[in-house]
Amino acid sequence: MLATRVFSLVGKRAISTSVCVRAHESVVKSEDFSLPAYMDRRDHPLPEVAHVKHLSASQKALKEKEKASWSSLSMDEKVELYRIKFKESFAEMNRGSNEWKTVVGGAMFFIGFTALVIMWQKHYVLPHNLSHTVVYGPLPQSFDKEWVAKQTKRMLDMKVNPIQGLASKWDYEKNEWKK
Amino acid sequence: MAHAAQVGLQDATSPIMEELITFHDHALMIIFLISFLVLYALFLTLTTKLTNTNISDAQEMETVWTILPAIILVLIALPSLRILYMTDEVNDPSLTIKSIGHQWYWTYEYTDYGGLIFNSYMLPPLFLEPGDLRLLDVDNRVVLPIEAPIRMMITSQDVLHSWAVPTLGLKTDAIPGRLNQTTFTATRPGVYYGQCSEICGANHSFMPIVLELIPLKIFEMGPVFTL
């Protein structure tokens, strides 16, 4: 049921023809792509056929009245004539939808789920000194804070990348990082 | 050497590397400009309200977007070729060192004025002192003088390896049965690190290259081994 209504919105026969037809049986008849078809498209502003194929008696009378001077038509009659020709106005066919909220919400949900997976991994998979299950084993000793401190001191003594890199950020006179 | 999570190039220790850094900046700027332009065009395509689908025959635009990329490519090619030829300039090296790749260590031969041959193995983790560089430090470094053109003859004794020192702008494949030559001149004293750059087996990640560049006066005094 919902699928039928969704397909009817598309209006083109690109998706299941018979489903689209079932949704619009009163106004849509032809199923063949080679026959002229109605479509509400911004880049195809004048459809090949009118929206309403079989006019009721009052509609037929209105069409007769249309052959006379248009200034004698009331506003409602003009709108009725428009709706015979076209299904949706440009404003209606170009309307936005709330789909973006679903998309953004779904994306954020899955990103959040990924965050949970990463939290699980950090606890159970990445190495640390605690006693729960560890898949990868302990971190190398060169990650210990004292080791990194001695290593950094050594890199500064060696003047590693003194032009724009590490040693360029150290103030050798004051023995501290440059502000 | 690179610091952790470093993305950019290391600072240059040779004139060629300085040229390469400048060229990299130049090429990257062109890449950024083109990418930004394409991103902008894509954005306009996705947000336009225009619906004309019958556009054809845009000869002037087609000519421009053929000629302009050709010009951009020339602007990239000319500096690139300039540096390429610069690396091959005749520079009369003062010293020739041979570097032979093995699985999984390097052998260095200083045979110009005598016969010094030694192996250079990565320091295993258990042999490291606190502050040493894991996976980078070696037992015997390649000691060389600064400000002198040095010729490296690189080959391999078993499989393909590659002798690379990024800060000097060097990377030369070590190919069994072939002698490859590269030259460099270091401008600053210091210790410079590189790693084997051609997959060569289980310990490919564990055969680093360490150069120790010292002033010529000290180099001439003789002691080349450092522990």
Automatic annotation (TrEMBL), chain B:
InterPro entries: CcO_II, CcO_II-like_C, CcO_II_C, Copper_CuA, Cupredoxin, Cyt_c_oxidase_su2, Cyt_c_oxidase_su2_TM_dom, Cyt_c_oxidase_su2_TM_sf. SUPFAM superfamilies: Cupredoxins, Cytochrome c oxidase subunit II-like, transmembrane region. It is found in: Mitochondrion inner membrane. It is a multi-pass membrane protein. Residues 92-225 form the Cytochrome oxidase subunit II copper A binding domain. Keywords: Copper, Electron transport, Magnesium, Membrane, Metal-binding, Mitochondrion, Mitochondrion inner membrane, Respiratory chain, Translocase, Transmembrane, Transmembrane helix, Transport. It holds the Pfam family COX2_TM. Binds a copper A center. It comes from the Eukaryota. The chain crosses the membrane at residues 27-46, 66-85. PROSITE patterns: COX2, COX2_CUA, COX2_TM. Its cofactor is Cu cation. One of its GO terms (biological process) is electron transport chain. Its main location: mitochondrion. One of its GO terms (molecular function) is oxidoreductase activity. Belongs to the cytochrome c oxidase subunit 2 family. Component of the cytochrome c oxidase, the last enzyme in the mitochondrial electron transport chain which drives oxidative phosphorylation. The respiratory chain contains 3 multisubunit complexes succinate dehydrogenase (complex II, CII), ubiquinol-cytochrome c oxidoreductase (cytochrome b-c1 complex, complex III, CIII) and cytochrome c oxidase (complex IV, CIV), that cooperate to transfer electrons derived from NADH and succinate to molecular oxygen, creating an electrochemical gradient over the inner membrane that drives transmembrane transport and the ATP synthase. This is Cytochrome c oxidase subunit 2.
